[in-house]
Amino acid sequence: MAPIQISGIYGEYGANLSRDAESKDDDVEEDNEKEYIAFPEEAIKYLPAEWQEHIYAIKEEGQTVLASVDENLNNLNRLVHAFPTMASLRYIQHRLVSTKFKATMEWALENDMLTLAFVTTYCRLVDGGLGSGVSRKALPAKLRPVHDRIVDLRNKRYAHNAGHDTISGNLAIGFEGGKFDLGVTFNMGFHVGGALEWEPLVIFLDELMISRLQKQLEKLKEKTGREWSFPSGPPPTWVSSD
What we know:
5 helices; 3-stranded mixed sheet; 2 domains; about 45% helix; 7 strands; alpha+beta
């Protein structure tokens, strides 16, 4: 049996269509190797009538099942939209903890750049938007103050120049010999490699996303009586809770 994949405006549907294959000694035997062929839905009308009937039956069955879990699929789609942001947050946090301190302005600005990326990505994740957000009450009590400090850092230091207590600048004016001398004092506070409390927060969020995915797949299975799988694999080498 050679599965043929049908692609069209209604999505992709698999249909098992029989195909004979000739052996080297001209004996006819069934070809057990799976082969996927993609072609437009408009091409179905050129197939044999029995093939068309089989394909459209599969299509109708699939549409009926999908329609019954439309709300669940919308929730799953919102969750999937959050995955790239979660991956970015995990990687930025890894980059932060991997940094080695150097007493140079270049290092300070590099660290500040990664911190900027972390806090803005975190706020984008929890806010949700098109993706599935994370409310403050969904966090464990011990992580909520961490959340509050990150949001405050984003709002007052990085998204807006609103007087966060980690950064300040003052203009000094001196007058001597009939002329004014201007000077600037600038103070910038930072965590070397990010705050230590950020790592458990990121790990919790990562596990929360996985848990939400599993729950959605379980709901789909419960409602349809069918297995639903999601692509998975080993985590990147830089993902570690050690």
